[in-house]
Amino acid sequence: MKRVIAAVALAVGLAGPAMAEPVLGVWKTQVDDGAYAHVTFSQCGAALCGVISRTFNASGEYQSENIGKQLVWDMNAKGSGKYSGGKIWQPSTDKVYKSKMTLSGSTLKVAGCVGPICKKQTWTKVQ
């Protein structure tokens, strides 16, 4: 019995990294109002959230007041690269929208929606 428990524990331990959420990591947003950001996704309780970790404009990297602020929160994985139930903040307008995302390889399609109308961006994986 001890061998079975040890084998199960080992299998779960080895499977953990393979089952890591693929959206975790750093993503580059599209340009919005002349600037773009790197957003770092991490696990926030049972959901996923994304925090602005770096900001850039036409002159290069700069220290925006938005660094460290949550851009995406309460996002839930639905399987097959689909995420929903979250919120997204648009810094240029200071508005919050319902959000959904679709992951395909190294691209993440992100949408902020009001009713059936959504504004969309395609983000690219940085790391």
How far apart the termini lie comes to 42 Å
Name the structural class.
Answer: mainly beta
Q: Biggest sheet, in brief?
A: 8 strands, antiparallel, barrel
Number of strands: 9
**Rg, please?**
17 Å
Strand content: over 45%
- The SSE order reads HEEEEEEEEE
Average pLDDT, all residues: 86
Strand order of the largest sheet: 1-2-3-5-6-7-8-9
Helix count equals 1
Low-pLDDT runs: 1-18
Q: Please state the overall shape, judged from the principal axes of the Cα atoms.
A: globular
Query: Helix content range of the residues, please?
Result: 10-25%
Could you list some keywords that capture this structure?
single chain; 127 residues; mainly beta; 9 strands; 58% strand; globular; disordered N terminus
Overview of the structural elements:
With 127 residues, the protein is mostly beta strands. The protein is built from one helix and nine strands; from the N terminus they run αβββββββββ. The protein has one helix at residues 2-18, and strands at 25-28, 35-44, 47-57, 60-62, 70-79, 82-90, 95-104, 107-114, 117-125. The chain has an eight-stranded antiparallel barrel with strand order 1-2-3-5-6-7-8-9. The longest helix has 17 residues, at 2-18. The radius of gyration is 17 Å and the shape is globular. It starts with a helix and ends with a strand. The model is unreliable at 1-18 (pLDDT under 50).
